[in-house]
Structure formats: structure tokens, C-alpha cells
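User: quick one, sequence for these C-alpha cells?
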């Protein structure tokens, strides 16, 4: 077994790294920590999370991963998550509950990547 800190980052191929940065800042409060001519890397929302936005012709193309998710700290946070998603300009695909007390929200980012916000 390899000892790790868990999944450390996602590298998203995007049309415009600055648009993705603005979206994820509004949605999740991420903070930029690195930038070069074709990419921006951000920290958050989890303690060791990193998202990388890389300018690419492949933006929004789905391969073997259908979506990625962020777990809420409380089921009561789903209303705020839905409002924040709309304010950030997300396209809300669906909302509901997997089971009583386990709400979810599926949304699309500016490049069409599907994000799951949920509580378990």
C-alpha cells in the first residue's frame, strides 16, 4: 500500500482559465496560488485540494470520468449551495435526495463539467 494524503488535485482542460477561476471562486471560494501563460492553479475548498485550469482545445470533453463531487458539511447547507451555484452562473441539472437527509445538487461549470454537491 502507498501512503498518501489522498486525491490531491484535478486538472481541468478549460476554454479560459480566468473564467474558470472566477466561477470556482464564487462557487467554492478557491484561492489562486500559481499562474503561468496557459494555466491557473487554485487551493480549496478542502485543506489539501488543488484544482488546475489549463487552457485547451479539449475543454469540456468528457472521457472516462462523468463528474466530480464536493461533500457538504451539513445537509442544511444544500439551500445555500443551490443559491451559490446560481449566483456563480452554474447550470443546475438536478436536485433532490439520495435518501432522507441526504440532499444533492448536480450542476455544470462554464465548460460543461458536471459537479455534484451533496451530503452524506
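Assistant:
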Amino acid at each position: 500500500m502507498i501512503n498518501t494524503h489522498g486525491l490531491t488535485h484535478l486538472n481541468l482542460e478549460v476554454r479560459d482559465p480566468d473564467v474558470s477561476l472566477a466561477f470556482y471562486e464564487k462557487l467554492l471560494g478557491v484561492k489562486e496560488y500559481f499562474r503561468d501563460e496557459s494555466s491557473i492553479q487554485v487551493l480549496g475548498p478542502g485543506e489539501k485540494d488543488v484544482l488546475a485550469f489549463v487552457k485547451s482545445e479539449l475543454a469540456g470533453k468528457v472521457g472516462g470520468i462523468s463528474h466530480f463531487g464536493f461533500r457538504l458539511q451539513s445537509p442544511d447547507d444544500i439551500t445555500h449551495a443551490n443559491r451559490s451555484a446560481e449566483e456563480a452562473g452554474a447550470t443546475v441539472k438536478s436536485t433532490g435526495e439520495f435518501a432522507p437527509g441526504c440532499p444533492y445538487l448536480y450542476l455544470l461549470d462554464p465548460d460543461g463539467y458536471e459537479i455534484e454537491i451533496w451530503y452524506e
